[in-house]
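[agent] plan:
  1. take the single chain provided in the ticket
  2. run structure prediction with default settings
  3. attach structure tokens to the ticket
  4. add a short note for the reviewer (M.T.)
[agent] executing step 1
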Amino acid sequence: MSRQRHYRACHLCEAICGLVIETEGEQVISIKGDKDDPLSRGHICPKAVALKDIHEDPDRLRRPVKRVVNNAGQHSWEEISWEEALDTTARRLVEITQRDGINALGIYLGNPTVHNYGMMTHQGNLFRHLRTNNRFSATSVDQLPHHLVSLWLFGHKSLFPIPDIDRTDYFLMLGANPIASNGSIWTVPDVKKRIKALQARGGKLVLIDPRRTETAEIASEHHFISPGTDALFLLAVLNTIFSEDLARPRQLAGFTTGLEEVALDIAQFTPEFAEPHTGISAEDTRRIARELAQAEAAICYGRMGVSTQAYGALNQWLIQIINIATGNLDRPGGSMFTLPAVDQVSNISPGGFARHHSRVRGLPEFDRELPAAAMAEEITTPGEGQVRALFTGAGNPVLSTPNGRQLDEALGQLEFMVSLDPYLNETTRHADIILPPTSPLEHDHYDLGFHINSIRNTARFNEPVFTPAAGSLHDWEIFGELGNRVAVLLGLEPQPVQPPSRMIDLGLQSGPYREQNLSLAKLREHPSGIDLGPLQSQLPARLRTRDSMLRCNTPEPLADLERLRHEFNQPQHGLLKLIGRRHVRSNNSWMHNYHRLVKGKNRCSLLMHPGDMVPRDIQDGAEVTISSRAGSVQVRVESCEDVMPGVVSLPHGYGHNRAGIRMEVARKHAGVSCNDITDELALDALSGNAAVNGVLVSVAPA
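[agent] step 2 finished; step 3 output follows
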């Protein structure tokens, strides 16, 4: 049996590293970095081996299953045909929505949706027939503030400014750990080498984070900051830029307005006002502001730590105002916009905000999705619009959304639930039917989502590594089949379903590189990908605002300053603040069932500063109870000076100890779910994003 070589992009995180996969028959023999990939340049991280593990995992579902309940009320799972699974699902969704109204259906799509282009291109085949207001996704426990600020300032939810690290001189980074994450809302493979190159040419990386992370260890400078106070620090930086006359919008000046109003509104947020709350001295804040403003090319960037907190949208808005005020937006070495070969900015709607609100708490939608923190109450609260049926796709919100225990209980009250997912996990165990798609190595791949965030414009398309198993369906085929069945039940004509590769081909041929005759056929001739060049200045043409202007005096974040002012004029709590943490071998809840990624030292522990342990009579290595308003968990504690006093850190995505899951490796490394103690009532009031960083907790010996 001869060996074959396949080219592939790893879809397990945002870095989309190029791979060379060698197979022999149905076996993966080796997975290595593709040195010819113009983006990743041969770099891979340990997660790449998980592609073999996912494909071969005996726990991965290969056929649809349904829940069967016996006379004693005990349930089991039974394999069924695709015909039965699809027919039953379509019939139940139509029955419930026709009886109780369209909003009786809830939809939740998880983070892996964006890593698989068939999920993105074809979900509309089903959901265009079921236009419920009760849509939810991982966006509102992750990057919603980025989207909202992009809509406000740039006119489109997907116009993300990307740090041009390869050409910058000064990089101010807040609440991000790209050494562990490989970048986030920033596709930046091989980031460690890029940071080293920045420093080698005399540049500087300044990191602001409550923990001395893997990235902090190689940063030029690291400052601890109290969780939830980043807005005060950013305001103090911007205040210094304005008060010391350091603002110079440079090439942006001709289409930028509102900076003068911003300067007036933030006048009282000085470095001295911020210092007692942030823990960063006024002197350091002023120096950082001057260094950033005076650098030839500089970047201000913040990610999870500043997004998933009580001032997430305000933080992201301030970051962009700093980039605009210093002329570092849309400038080489600053924050720049990508130009993907299949341009989502041109192909999808710009998004909208607060066009409708959740039924129970009145929380605003964004891009037709409600905050995920409202999902449980929308299931359990009686009345018109109560969610009675739920569709989940590629998501595990029991482990990924605030107060997961509450959602866990709520899912048991549903009349019908269906999950498009390859695993029987903490969420899908509540489903009546599970629809498993093909293995990632059994379908073709194009990174529709992450070229939007890429450090360089590239394009690549990869064929399947293996022929799909007999009797299996791709996720896009599942959506197409369900959509057509629902259409027939509603008296509509079923529509032919084109494969996603056809849609990509049309997007390439009509996209920004059409003069280069870019097409699917051309990408197939270059399986390692095609280099389309470095990021280029594109403003004001790339703006999608109504008048192609950058209007900095955005009313919503300026109004939110009063909430910030009020909170930090009040006495501060003496409780500890809980933050998460990322590991390079993990990604949310979906990387824990593969032995090679979880072996070694237990990673689900609570990091706690020794100065906080002594007065609580807590010993290193002991079991402790962490409690919040939402609940409590018990976990082993580690004494660690890499977290600042007053802060404790617990990783995200664990808690694989619930009954009824079929993930044996994950069960052996169960850990605890930090989202059993995050609070569904703790939100960024401006955006509705979950505030899972900076949760107030108490810690005591178990």
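[agent] step 4 note for reviewer: Residues 82-100 form the longest helix (19 residues).
[agent] ticket updated
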